[in-house]
Design a protein that fits this description.
Length: 392
């Protein structure tokens, strides 16, 4: 068990500190919390105390604590100090060596490693002053994570979002040298998302795949120490921590990227690759006209899973996905035999699975079928990553 001192900064992302505490406790760590004045506007000390089962520290001027030099003791007893969220103001004060509240005093007094997960408006993150401050912290030996990119509470879009909690946990585990490292030294290839097959310069054939399940699996494998190559179709998702990402558009491009990523110890083919493409791609936009257009001629796309199964560099463990709307298990078992995969992960996509955040899957192997209850896609990924680690 490691002792983590969590400093909760004053930003809207402070609420995610609650989820972070739960995940760290679940991983067996002891969490002590320091709640800044700004952070207290977003979460309460009572909430943090209930989740951590430890006293929450809020002020440098606690008579009992400081009679025992509490801020020195707190900073020295921890194995790691974590700042979530690292606001622009808190990062600036850290870079300047200020010690004008309990949080900054602890950060200045500690001799233990420090990890900062930043969160702020995109313009604040990109401002030269913030970039100078981040560079200063990094030169001082403090690890500052890169923020995620996406929509923000202020309505703007860009880099500045707090990294997702699993990514923060993974960074903490790496910093501490703890966590599940069963896949260390293994290279695992993951495909995710749809493919877009062009009809003309503005139209394409596609499907509803969001890429969420594949990205969650890539992240879970990376957290277990694997070197992960993620070949992603056109999706708007942040790259998981510790994952090498290659973006593609078409099935042919995905097939080439998969071949280029070999050899691999395992491949998890989650992508919903289009079975068909336009046989003739128009050089110019097809015009509507008064009559119905000529029938669209289709050509079969490359079967990436079956091709990989026949490759001389075939991964030791080859896993395919089967998205079905009826006779899910029958189709999945037939697909495993037909494609030459070791496992098939089958799911019923007749509801809101594509684009949703939960999934019900069946793991089809030589040993039979293992059906899992409906789970968030993140937990499906964790469970599958554990099965892969056991198999390898």
């Amino acid at each position: 068990m490691k002792r983590i001192l969590l400093i909760v900064g004053g930003g809207i992302a402070a609420y995610k500190a609650c989820e972070l505490i739960r995940e760290l406790r679940r991983a067996g760590h002891d969490v002590r919390c320091v709640l800044t004045e700004g952070g207290a506007h977003f979460v309460t000390a009572m909430t943090l105390a209930a989740l951590s089962e430890n006293k929450v520290h809020t002020t440098l001027w606690d008579l009992k604590d400081e009679a025992e030099m509490g801020h020195i003791r707190l900073s020295r007893e921890a194995d790691l100090l974590v700042v979530v969220p690292g606001t622009a103001d808190l990062i600036a004060r850290m870079a300047g060596g200020l010690a004008n509240d309990l949080a900054t005093t602890l950060l200045l007094a500690t001799d233990k490693p420090v990890l900062v997960a930043p969160a702020m408006n995109v313009r604040m993150w990109r401002h030269p002053a913030t970039q100078r401050n981040v560079a200063q912290l990094r030169s001082d030996g403090i690890q500052v994570m890169e923020p995620d990119e996406g929509a923000m509470a202020c309505g703007e879009f860009g880099p500045g979002r707090l990294p997702e909690v699993p990514a923060i946990v993974a960074a903490i585990e790496r910093k501490l040298g703890t966590g599940d490292r069963r896949l260390h030294g293994r290279h695992i290839l993951v495909t995710a998302g749809p493919t877009h097959e062009p009809i003309d310069p503005v139209r394409y054939i596609a499907n509803r795949s969001s890429g969420k399940q594949g990205f969650a699996i890539a992240a879970a494998l990376a957290r277990r120490g694997a070197r992960v190559t993620l070949v992603a179709g056109p999706v708007d998702l942040p790259t998981p921590a510790g994952v090498a990402r290659h973006d593609v558009e078409t099935a042919q491009q995905m097939s080439e990227a998969v071949a280029a990523a070999l050899p691999a110890d395992a491949a998890v083919m989650v992508a919903a690759v289009a079975d068909w493409r336009a046989a003739d791609v128009a050089a110019q936009k097809l015009k509507k006209g008064d009559d119905a257009p000529a029938p669209l001629r289709l050509a079969r796309n490359v079967d990436i899973l079956a091709t990989l199964a026949q490759d001389v560099r075939r991964p030791r463990l080859l896993i395919g996905f089967a998205a079905e709307t009826e006779q899910v298990l029958d189709h999945a078992q037939a697909k495993r035999r037909r494609k030459g995969a070791d496992w098939i992960v089958a799911n019923d996509v007749s509801g809101d699975v594509m684009g949703g955040d939960a999934n019900t899957v069946h793991l089809v192997t030589d040993d039979g079928v293992e059906s899992w209850e409906r789970l968030p896609k993140r937990l499906v990924a964790e469970r599958l990553a554990d099965r892969i680690a056991d198999a390898l």
